[in-house]
Design goal:
Layout (H helix, E strand, L loop, with lengths): L13 E7 L2 E7 L2 E6 L2 E8 L3 H9 L1 E7 L5 H8 L14 E3 L6 E3 L3 E15 L2 E13 L8 H6 L27 E3 L5 E2 L35 E3 L2
Antiparallel strand pairs: 1-2, 1-5, 3-4, 4-9, 5-8, 6-7, 8-9, 10-11, 10-12
Length: 230
């Protein structure tokens, strides 16, 4: 069975946020879809191991921030490859607290947001599908939203192991392309042909030519945490 066929389903890139006992947390998600128009409802899929899952269960509220194509990989890395159990993900982030649910809403690099109250939850093995009634929503910019395909193909992003779309990749299939290096922390692959323009690295820059201060654009791991794909 070729599970990559599942990746042909269209997804977006979102930050799902919630609150619990005065604390805030959020995470990257790709599974958000509308259920009904009247009343307006959406569904999200959240891994049970994630802290955001616990916050949504307790507070019964969540927000969806729809990220733009220009959203930096550092933002995606902060919310997608780091744990709120170890850090405050909202430190240094421009956000507001919803007047309706109290959930945090990301303001920068966001096309639109949805503010939701949970009306139903469905247990699905490793994940919970939360259905939320939209109590508020708005458009914040006219930028084009980031698709999951754009995140993978243009940004060079990877799926966290807790994502519903995560597929283990056999790196031995990359033989003959030893100039590529993979982050041992999050799986990001540095491709010299693409470079890392978001961080000032031009296409055609070999990994060995990267400055020692360069870090993984997704998780922030140092250059020493990369290994050659061979």
């Amino acid at each position: 069975m070729n599970k990559k066929a599942i990746q042909k389903i269209s997804y977006g890139v979102y930050i799902i946020s919630s609150k619990s006992n005065g604390k805030l947390n959020g995470q990257i998600a790709n599974t958000v879809f509308q259920i009904t128009s009247e009343p307006p409802t959406v569904a999200i899929s959240i891994n049970k191991a994630n802290l955001t899952h616990d916050y949504i269960l307790k507070s019964k509220v969540f927000s969806v921030s729809v990220l733009s194509k220009s959203a930096p990989m550092g933002l995606i890395g902060q919310f997608g490859f780091k744990s709120g159990r170890d850090m405050d993900k909202f430190q240094g982030i421009n956000y507001k607290i919803s007047n309706n649910t109290g959930a945090p809403i990301i303001l920068d690099n966001t096309v639109s947001y949805l503010d939701c109250e949970v009306i139903s939850a469905q247990d699905v093995v490793t994940h919970t599908v939360f259905i939320g009634k939209i109590v508020d929503c708005d458009i914040l910019s006219n930028e084009e939203p980031m698709s999951y395909a754009y995140y993978h193909e243009v940004k060079g992003g990877k799926s966290p192991k807790t994502a519903p779309t995560y597929i283990h990749e056999d790196k031995t299939k990359e033989q003959g392309k030893s100039e590529k290096y993979s982050c041992k922390v999050c799986g990001y692959v540095y491709d010299p042909e693409k470079g890392n323009p978001d961080n000032g690295i031009k296409p055609g820059t070999a990994f060995e030519e990267l400055p020692d201060t360069w870090v993984c654009p997704i998780c922030g791991a140092p250059k020493g945490e990369f290994e050659k794909i061979s």
